[in-house]
Predict the structure.
Amino acid sequence: MRDIAPAARMAIQSTVVQQDFPLTTRNCAEKASSTPRLSGVLDALCVGQPHSYGTPDAADAHDKPWTTGFFKRPVDHAIYLGKTNLVGDGQADLKNHGGPDKAVLAYGVENYALWKNDLNIQFTPGAFGENFTIAGLNEQTVCLGDIYAVGKARVEVSQPRQPCWKLARRWRMNELVGMVINNGRSGWYLRVLEEGPVQPGMAVELLERSEPHWPVARAHEVMHHRKNDRALAAALAAVAPLADAWKHQLLARLRRADLKT
């Protein structure tokens, strides 16, 4: 990955994420501003391997047997970031998690203060199953296709995170998935373009922005709250850096809409 020239860097820094789309989620723009920060800091680096939990005869459904790699713990040392995951990290459900387009899950640390206001729970890094807890970036200021330098590693934003039932199971709150869908604090996935060691405290520096009109928040909005908008679905599906899984979902949505007409 080439570094960018000073003139190109100035152009990136002057770019404003244009939110020219109507938002139906109440809190989606809580952290947005007219001049968003475009780089951040790796506040915490979190990993965890799959483990099994629960007992077969549990009365509470939350205590029934399940296997998950959701429980991530911060580390204080460097870890090698490979093409599909961090060394020492893993996922239980490889059909829906992990792989090149979901090598790293990132989450904005400032979101946790908002959750504290909502739920009176002080979540800590890794609480939402993320690998990178990042200060200074969020769903409004990160765009699909953004390429960041983290040390020698280079990562690219591939898609918003779609919260699944394991988030609710982890925190024993069935309503939590719906809350994430409503408020847009989803986090985002990264694919790895260049491998390298990463560690807490490193800068997460924006190098390239190819899709300034597609912040993570807008993609989340289209997927979850604009399901009948065929034009937006087609536009999002055409975003080159978007993960194939999302493209397939959007194209299937368009095919279903065509059958109804």
Observations:
- The longest helix spans residues 244-260.
- DSSP finds seven helices and twelve strands in the chain.
- Residues 1-35 have pLDDT under 50 and may be disordered.
